[in-house]
Amino acid sequence: MVTRWPMGWKEMRMEINIGYKGRANANNVDLNRNFPKLNAIAYKNERTGGKNNHMEPYQVALDTPGLQPETKAVMIWLHEIPFVLSSNLHGGDLVANYPYDATKDKSAHHYTKTPDDETFRFLAESYSLYHTEMAKKNRTPCDMSGDDLFPEGITNGANWYSVPGGMQDYNLLETNCFEITLELGCDKFPEPEKEEEYWHQNKEALINYMLQVHDGVKGIVTDAETGEPIRNASVKVYKVTSGGDDVKYINHDITTNKEGDYYRLLIDGKYKLEVVKEGYLPMEEFVEVQNKPMTEAVKRDFQLTPINRRNMEPEDGDAVFDNRAYYGEYPAEEYDVDRLRELILRYFGRRYQ
């Protein structure tokens, strides 16, 4: 489990439960709000019909002014490994918090839905309802005033309080990963004798949440003529209405990874999938998702037919997201921790030596 700022934890631990003590790094920057603020781009694109994922080219995002070394290291990690589902763990309250975290109107509190609001609510409840305390209606609120009791133990982040520059919104808008924030208890630093109690409170919830990585649809996209995987193809999803006569576009695409594989988290229902890649004929297929415990996601592979082989030169998007020329080749089979560390050190060494 990654700790982004272990020295901050140590400093905060010395000032028991003073939440903001130690949040800043050595440069006095709050790492909890230090990711590129991509929400403004996303909200504008919703109005204008612009792109709805990977909001900035990777290298542009890394050059965002004010980013700290710890934040850049996490960004490199997120782009090197194609995560599907994640969470970041906090203390100070008891709730599962889902995106968006930043409000559209820059107000302090306002429910701000993602295009996948239903799926995110389901993911948040997959944790809260399996936690022994989080979803209880009669539990004592953390601030003792009653204003932080959350129905079913979940909350939209922006509705609770707006957090621009947070990690969960960055993950959603710049990678293919769905992330929520888990506040695991009122006490930021429970005493050692309470650790076993915390484990029992969270054990089933953690396991159940991790199992949701198998929800929805997955597959591999390849070239119909060569059989080679197609990277950065867009997977678009349309939800079939209850009557089955119409479909509604879910305005958040995901893209295929370097091996052509994709993973799209979805709640139960009927959907139309459309796979699009420049230089190929688009392809679509209808699927029905029925997420059942201990079963894998529905599998749908796509073989795209090239329009014109002579015109299939790499496009700008491929050049931006294919980091092999910048960092060297990707690991052949498995993502190796030492290899990832080498990549991070190579990046910082190149820029700051």
H/I helix tally:
11
The share of residues in extended strands comes to 15-25%
Looking at CATH, the homologous superfamily of the largest domain is: Zn peptidases
Low-confidence stretches: 319-333
* Spatial gap, N to C terminus: 29 Å
Biggest sheet, spatial arrangement of strands: 1-4-2-3
The total tally of domains equals 3
Mean pLDDT: 85
Helix and strand content put the structural class at alpha/beta
Pattern of helices and strands: HHHHEEHEHHEHEEEEEEEEHHH
What is the rounded Rg?
Answer: 21 Å
CATH architecture of the largest domain: 3-Layer(aba) Sandwich
How many strands, which pairing sense, and closed or not: the largest β-sheet? 4 strands, mixed
The number of strands is 12
Shape, per Cα inertia axes: globular
Q: Determine and state the CATH class of the largest domain.
A: Alpha Beta
The fold-level CATH name of the largest domain is: Aminopeptidase
Share of helical residues: 25-40%
